[in-house]
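Extended Data, record Cytochrome P450
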Amino acid sequence: METRRSSGCPFRFDPAGRDISGEAERFRAAGPAPLVVMPGDVLARVVVDLRVAVWLLKHPQMSKDPRQHWPAYMEGCIPRKRDLGKWVETQNAQTAFGPDHARLRRLIQPAFAPRIINALQSKIEELTSRLLDDLETTAPGETVDLRARFTGLLPHLVATALLGVPAEMSEPFRDALNKALFATSLPEGEKQAAGEELDRLLAELVKIKRAEIKRAEQGEGEDVTTALIQARDDQSNPELRKLSEKELHGNILMLLVAAYETTVNLITHAIAALLTHLDQLALVRDGGADWDDVVEETLRYQAPVANMLLRFPTEDLYHEESGERFEKGVPVIMGYLGINRDPHQHGETADQFDITRPTRHKHLAFGTGVHNCPGARLARMEARTALTALFDRFPHLTLATTPDQLHPLESFISNGHQTLPVILQPLTGDNAVGERA
């Protein structure tokens, strides 16, 4: 389905995400925040202008709670088990407003405190080394899907370690998360089934952790899930007693997503960008730039979340500089892929990958304001560690296909590649002769 706009008609997202960069360009050509139709025929505004985005993200009258501030949802006009599914029905810090948001954010913020994240560095290095050891067994000249065997595994292993997810639940969680939240072209029945499976897994995880706590097999706050459950069940603290069981499950889900999806796409895109822009890779190897520069420019150039759902003005809002009006209760999507390539901020080369760009840090890949992504520090650390180790271990790493054959994820929300085929090591002299023979 092609994104199109006829006179007076809104754009329509392609649920399969076949050209999200092109969509973002067409949105921008239509204005700072054009009308768009989401799957399920839900009308919204998609913001692609950096100035407008920052203003809205920091505005005190912008809510993420559909239960209070989306009239169509509150009145039952939006089927609760269709299309948008978990993005609106889950109750956590990311879908709360005002005092409720502050209460829930205080509860989950310690999980991503600098001391906690810094303490994970050795674990990240260990997991990275183990995955690269496995890749090193690949025969010279053999094609490897790096997403399947490295970039898609490392963040998942870190996230499940952080939250204490048992090994046997790790893969089911990853599958259900992808289907329920990000695979926007998935048939309605499959998406609903994935959402139900996600609910079951969250309930099972909490049950397992509560049993471990009861048997005193877990120390205080040994993993984030344990810490959240102990906080939820601490009847001595009236503030924490306000945390419902549904909010407990919702916040565990939010933390899994914050620690996983963004990081997978970030690392995958960074590798793909470097292998298709060898001059940029040479800059890093020659000391003209560093891995932090690569990470920040990748976040800007290929926002891991292309379009973030949903926000709701709690009153009519007017942005004076752009002349844009945002009507009370009409959903707003943050089009981060378009926002981060805003030419007003990044100039005429905004659509190009340049790790020396002076404005590479000026992006909103992790949002801003009260709902900024709590996993941003962890994502940056993982990406820096993974990229450094990968290119050190495999200095001759090359892409095994043409850039146009890197197929995007089937999603208008998540911006990534389905696969990343590479050749880790070139054929040696003897192997090359044998291959030709």
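Summary. The two ends are 47 Å apart (CA to CA).
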